[in-house]
């Protein structure tokens, strides 16, 4: 049993049963599950290559949505915020590391800004791939920027407005992460399905002993250089390492207004991205 102490909550993951137990009574939370057959359109190894080699009902990741302690339900509802936990299994699909399907966020009604989201690694390793489309209305026209943020337990990673994203599990163990996001929209999956996934895929064999290999997706008309970054701490948004984001929200909900009102925080998002671009740790990937 894995006790997710970094969450600051009574929550455990049973890796054998693949079950999440949440709350003071350790009740089993019900997940939405992504299976291999749900991911075929966005994989580096297409369905023809995987046919007869892998179980289409293989479980890849589990999404436990809208988790909260009973005493905090009214606060989450009032602020329009949702807390989720997602668990990615370790391993590969063909030569590609297990990942999420990836999605974009819609525009907030009445604005020209998409909703942001913030992730927290509770256990394992994560590579968050953020990509900014050339045209938010037509993401299939290509991407102008791709950033991979390498995160470890306790790190927070913000997905700013204007970016789509996927999460990759490059480790040998489960990746368990939480997220805070506005609860009044549905994610947009179709553009990434149409493009065969994100702009880059991470394969399981390395370029050398230290560096992972990312390959560009040939379905995209353009291939921007791939930028690697470490997480950026941002005190205004309480993106502070090892500070449980659930309790940060409960204690300081006003600091999370950016999740529901992104139009009011464009300068802050701009500064965040500037620091993220400066916080490099790995040279540009070969395109």
Task: Provide an overview of this structure.
The chain is of the alpha+beta class. The chain has a single domain, classed as Jelly Rolls, CATH 2.60.120. It has helices at 36-39, 47-50, 73-79, 190-194, 245-251, 266-278; strands at 2-3, 11-14, 19-22, 27-28, 32-35, 59-64, 81-88, 92-93, 96-97, 117-123, 126-133, 143-151, 156-159, 164-168, 175-182, 200-203, 213-216, 226-229, 280-282. The chain has a six-stranded antiparallel sheet with strand order 5-6-7-15-10-13. It has a five-stranded mixed sheet with strand order 14-11-12-18-19. The chain has a four-stranded antiparallel sheet with strand order 1-2-3-4, with no helix packed on it. Strand 1 (2-3) and strand 2 form a beta hairpin. The relative contact order is 0.17.
Strands of the widest sheet, in order across it, are 5-6-7-15-10-13
CATH class bucket:
Mainly Beta
Query: Major sheet: size, sense and barrel closure?
Result: 6 strands, antiparallel
User: Into which percentage range does the β-strand content fall?
Assistant: 25-35%
N-to-C SSE series? EEEEEHHEHEEEEEEEEEHEEEHHE
């Amino acid at each position: 049993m894995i006790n997710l102490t970094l969450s600051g909550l009574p929550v455990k993951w049973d890796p054998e049963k693949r079950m999440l137990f949440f709350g003071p009574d350790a009740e089993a939370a019900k997940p939405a599950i992504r299976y291999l057959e749900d991911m075929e359109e966005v994989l580096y190894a297409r369905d023809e290559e995987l046919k007869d080699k892998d179980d289409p009902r293989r479980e890849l990741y589990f999404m436990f949505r809208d988790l909260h302690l009973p005493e905090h339900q009214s606060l989450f509802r009032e602020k329009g915020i949702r807390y989720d936990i997602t668990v990615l299994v370790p391993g590969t699909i063909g030569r590609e590391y297990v990942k999420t399907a990836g999605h974009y966020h819609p525009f907030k009604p009445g604005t020209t800004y998409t909703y942001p989201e913030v992730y927290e690694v509770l256990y394992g390793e994560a590579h968050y791939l953020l990509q900014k489309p050339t045209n938010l209305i037509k993401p299939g026209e290509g991407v102008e920027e791709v950033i991979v943020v390498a995160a470890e337990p306790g790190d927070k990673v913000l997905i700013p407005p204007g970016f789509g994203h996927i999460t990759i599990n490059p480790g040998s163990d489960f990746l368990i992460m939480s997220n805070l996001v506005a609860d009044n929209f549905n994610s947009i999956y179709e553009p990434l399905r149409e493009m065969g996934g994100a702009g880059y895929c991470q394969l399981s064999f390395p370029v050398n002993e230290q560096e992972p290999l990312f390959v560009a997706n040939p379905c995209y008309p353009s291939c921007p250089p791939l930028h690697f970054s470490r997480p950026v701490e941002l005190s205004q948004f309480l993106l502070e390492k090892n500070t449980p984001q659930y309790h940060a929200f409960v204690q300081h909900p006003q600091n999370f207004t950016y999740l529901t009102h992104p139009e009011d925080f464009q300068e802050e998002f701009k500064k965040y991205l500037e620091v993220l671009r400066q916080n490099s740790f790995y040279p540009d990937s070969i395109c």
